[in-house]
Design goal:
The structure holds 3 protein chains of 3 kinds.
Chain A lengths: L7 H16 L8 H23 L7 E11 L2 E9 L1 H24 L6 H20 L3 H19 L6 H32 L4 H9 L7 H16 L8 H4 L5 H10 L4 H8 L1 H4 L5 H21 L4 H21 L3 H28 L9 E2 L6 H15 L5 H19 L3 H29 L4 E2 L22 H30 L2 H7 L8 E2 L2 E2 H26 L1 H10 L1 H8 L4 H46 L7 H23 L2
Antiparallel strand pairs in A: 1-2, 3-4, 5-6
Helix pairs in contact in A: 1-2, 1-4, 2-3, 2-4, 3-4, 3-10, 3-15, 3-19, 4-5, 5-6, 6-8, 8-11, 10-15, 13-14, 13-18, 14-15, 14-17, 14-18, 15-16, 15-17, 15-19, 16-18, 16-19, 17-18, 17-19, 17-21, 18-21, 21-22
Chain B lengths: L1 H18 L8 H20 L10 H23 L3 H21 L3 H25 L14 H4 L4 H23 L9 H15 L4 H5 L19 H12 L1 H23 L8
Chain C lengths: L6 H24 L3 H26 L3 H31 L13
Chain lengths: ~650, ~270, ~110
Amino acid sequence: MTLQFARFIPWLPIVAAIFCALCCTKKSWRHYASWICLASVVGSFILSLMAGSIITPGKEAQTVTFFEWIHAGRFQANFHYYFDTLTIVMLYVITGIGSLVIWYAGGYMKGDRGYARFFMAVSLFIFSMTTLVMADNLLLLFLGWEGVGLCSYLLIGYYYDKPSAVAAGKKAFIVNRIGDLCFILGIFLTYREFGTIAYEPLFEALADMEHATGSVAAIPFLFMLGAFGKSAQLPLYVWLPDAMEGPTPVSALIHAATMVTAGVYLIARMMPMFVLSPYALPVVATVGGLTALFAATIALCQYDIKRIFAYSTVSQLGYMFLGLGAASSVGAVFHLFTHAFFKALLFLTAGSVMHAMAGQLDLRKMGGLRHKMPVTCWLMFAGCLALAGVPLFSGFYSKDLILGDAMAAGLNGHNPWMTVLAWMGLFTAFLTAFYTFRLWFRVFWGPDQCVMGDDHHDDGGGHHPHEPHEMPWSMNLPLVFLAVGAVIGGMVCHEWMTTMVLSSSAGEALSHGGTAHHASLFGMDVHSAVMVLSIAAALLGIALAAWFHLIRPSAADRVKQSYAGLCDLLENKYFVDELYDAVVVRPLKLIGSVCFVIDRLVIDGMVSLVGFAPRLLGLTVRPTQSGSLQGYGLSMVVGLAIMLLLVTLMWGY
Amino acid sequence: MTVALYIASVLGAIALYLMMPKRGYTPVRLGMLLGAAVMGGLWLYLAKYLPAMTGLPSAAMGYYYLFSFIAVGAAARVITHTKPVYSAWWFVLVVLASSGLFLTLSAEFMAFAMIIIYGGAILVTYVFVIMLASDPGNAASTTGGAEYDRLPREAGVAVTVGFVLLALLLGVFASHSEGDAVYPQNPQAAAVRDIQVVATALPGRAISVLAEKSTGEIPATAGQIRQLENVERVGLDLFENHPLGLELAGVILLLSLIGAVVIAYRRVEGADV
Amino acid sequence: MFEPIHSLALTHYLITGAILFVLGLIGFVTRRNLIIMFLCTEMMFQGVSISLVAFSRYHLNMTGQTFVIFVLTIAAAEAALALGLVVLLFRRKHTLDSEAWSSMSG
């Protein structure tokens, strides 16, 4: 069986998007949109599974030709799809998690005015994202890259009558532009240096190189900036927390599970290029490690459920970049995979809570919800355990792999900075466990209290809006699947994932670098030692959260009072938004107003001056245009007489 | 001769300007007298140059003076009369006089076509429209028509420029006719050409129709043939040399018919007619 | 009967035609009554027609007279359309003054 059928993976969703757009036109058709979208994405998932049965580890990467896209001189960018094991893993994540989230969203968005519009954008997103991972060249990848950015913008601003949502959409778009500009500059540079932007010839050319020199060394840094923008790393992470203005399924699918991992995918895909530069990967690791710690500290003091998870996402993405930087692309992609499950689960359960509380997201205004929403409670518990990295849960395996690889890389290569980053990662694991369970305890345990939100738009099923309620099973069932993935995904998929990633371009690039880990820490194998440490960190974090938020809430208050300044700093997210506002936005606005004045006075003045001269000329000639027919006739006769006179005089008749 | 024409132009311009309606007193009669004098003087002066054989019968030349005098005088009244209806009637006189001029040129068909079409069709339409569109408030007025009929615009400039143009034209005519002796062409040549035309246009009946004495050959002398009538010549020329123009003329007439119906049928908002 | 005429005789007719043409022109420019303006254009046609017929005789050629037929055609068409328009304009403003329609002034 050939792979020809795989070309339909992106095209099923885009056909669905067209049909969903048609559904927008009529109110009675609206409810078909979710089924159309779900059917197409499930179809894509099945096609991905079929493709996965062909592209197994050890097989050559295949290119599925589709059509010639851009062909200008020597430049060629075709709509061809590139399949290797990394592509397959990403397709599983996108279409699999996508199907479950869309299934959930079918119930979650019920009764909303823009029901069909939502599913149209989601279908378009699935198209863009699959195109991104299936692209056979960088330009097609960039097409998908911008496509997901667009869909993200559309979905963040989904409640377009809400000013904060509109502002968040704009912020996401603009911040991403910074990264995207660097990315496309990187593509230009790649073409200049290698004469091609298709993967296969590019990898062949890279395989022959020993060290990156000159411009080639700059390309990874440009790609890196693009990835940092899309995957919300320092310093471009600011858009992701605000992106939570979109509907919760969007947060789960786009801003946790799939789109934000595009940067990880990009670096993993371009790993052959990154390993050539001696500085690229350490920079990635540094940024990833710092982001992980930074975002985790912010998450400690937030009160908005979705924002906590958003910072958690930033933090986990930081882990992935740390893994990439430590040359552990297996760990990074593995964490991407498990994170997709448990973070989607967490977001969707948070969405259920929000749904039940009529839009209420403030931790301080809820508590003891486990009686009212038992299923959601235990589903979120599974997700929290996975995120906190409790042994046997999926997050544990992937996070441990990253930290172990980072520690090993630091000790093996006598690179103290990498060791520091690994220790920071371990500390972050402790913080992660703490803020995760802080949230869970405060929402589902503690004294019963619920202050309902004022949001009535998602009033599904005609329930009484003043009483939190359990979700129907049509919405909980997809969560169960996600929870199963979050619980056993790490255990079951560990081996499979390792072989899959190692047989892709990401793994091949590293294999000849030699990553034999034989260092030891505390007299143990590095991986075992890190495992022990991270288990300890996770359990310590959970215990501390339980102490502060379940057993002795007053202790939390005391701590908060004694470190009021620190808490204030964290609650306000280190004032980064304010800093950006002062450093970037205000100067820009100032320049803008200066330009405005110059434009008004100088440019417009010049234009007016240019316009003034003809007007003056016109003023002198205007009286001749009397509008009187006979006046024109008389001038004609006068002209005729003059002409005849001239002719007569000249020829002497 | 040229100088005489120029002088006549200047005097004619003065005469016409005198006749033009003015806000105060209009010396119409003075202008008419001056104009008549100028015309008469010009004709007398020109007739002096005429050779004995003009190609026209001397009676025709006499009628030429009469008709052209009428035509020019009537034309002057058309543009100077303050009442539109009178202008129209004076124009009828212009048409009749120019028909007479056509007769002196032995263009009989044109003469009568002119009377029928202009005098019969077009002028009647004009008079009808003048009746239809006249201002009811001014119909009974004895001082003559509406204000826009009583006062011409820019009469001085227009008369000056017009007569400059005229003087130039007359100068050109005069310089070309002086001492010109293209006359006479062979009259027989025209007859032979006629026969050729008919022979190609109407094969089979050419000679018997044309020749007074049917000899079955192309007649050699002018006396032997009956020349074609004016109507026949015009018809032959029209259908032989200008069939496309004839068809186009038909199309134009049809279009103007449709156009007139469309225009007349349109309702004007705010109109009470 | 049908003979060429002397060029001086031709000049006579041309002079008459020219005078009629110029008088029509002056009338078109000076008269403010729309109907009379069109009447004056007809008079210019008359002048041209006389010249054409005279040339026809001078050259012993029928084309001049044929052209007069076309001139008549155009004159008739023009009269039909122009007078229809004049009636339309009169209905709109209740005046035949050509000065009333000067809305195209600059």
